[in-house]
Design brief:
57% of the residues lie in helices and 0% in strands. Helix 2 (35-54) crosses helix 6 (150-162). The radius of gyration is 19 Å and the shape is globular. It is built from 10 helices and no strands. It is mainly α and 236 residues long.
Length: 236
């Protein structure tokens, strides 16, 4: 029986952005003893899956639990993987794990909670006014994103929140890369409406180029918050 790779077993693998995870997954599927390939999948995909699930459930600890459940299922089912995109395959399993988590609640008449979009502060040095502004933006973004059409929400989830590349996002959504870039552009444009776009934080988030390249993940929490004067002309 396959064993789920532990976090310690993944530390020996380097994070190589050029690694072909589809080939790694096929190797694991074809060789029941290939624990190294499973560990590589775990190392490269675990954090994105956690971030994906954090938008589905409000509790970060629950997202971690569901990610562990997801990779337990990956280990159990890897022999059924035949190619076609490991990101799409794993994210479908994550969706199923999330659906199973909420099913008992729905069966008791409870509605699935609204998706939560968490935007980490871009700096630990924000003052009280900037922190309040950032929190205000987060609430506004949550309300606005949850009103967007489903494909807009999904492209923003995968690109901004999860940090997938356009190619990986296209694989998960079953679209062409060019379509993903168009969707991302239109989704960001839609977000500019009804937001407090006079604030520094809003300008900072919404001034991110929707035409970023493969290596630009567009992760808001990894950027420096720019001064108002530096971004005031980019909100249009």
């Amino acid at each position: 029986m396959r064993q789920e790779p532990s976090p310690s077993s993944t530390q020996a693998h380097s994070c190589d952005p050029g690694l072909d995870l589809n080939a790694v997954a096929l190797s694991a599927a074809q060789d029941a003893e290939d624990s190294d390939s499973l560990a590589t999948l775990f190392q490269h995909m675990y954090d994105p899956v956690v971030r994906y699930l954090e938008t589905k459930v409000k509790d970060p600890a629950t997202a971690e639990d569901l990610a562990q459940d997801t990779f337990a299922r990956v280990v159990e089912r890897i022999e059924t993987y035949t190619g076609g995109g490991i990101w799409a395959w794993v994210f479908r399993i994550a969706d199923n794990a999330c659906t199973d988590h909420f099913r008992p609640m729905r069966n008791r008449g409870y509605e699935t909670p609204a998706e939560t979009w968490r935007f980490d502060q871009p700096s630990h040095d924000l003052g009280p006014a900037e922190t309040a502004e950032w929190n205000e933006l987060g609430r506004a973004l949550n309300q606005r994103i949850n009103r967007l059409r489903p494909d807009y929400r999904e492209v923003l989830r995968l690109r901004l929140m999860v940090g997938l590349s356009p190619t990986q996002t296209a694989e998960v959504m079953g679209r062409k890369v060019g379509t993903i870039r168009v969707l991302q552009f239109r989704a960001l444009k839609a977000l500019r409406k009804d937001l407090p776009d006079s604030t520094t934080a809003a300008l900072y988030v919404l001034s991110a180029s929707p035409d970023t390249g493969e290596d630009d993940v567009m992760h808001a929490s990894h950027m420096e918050l720019r001064e108002r004067d530096d971004v005031a002309g980019t909100s249009g």
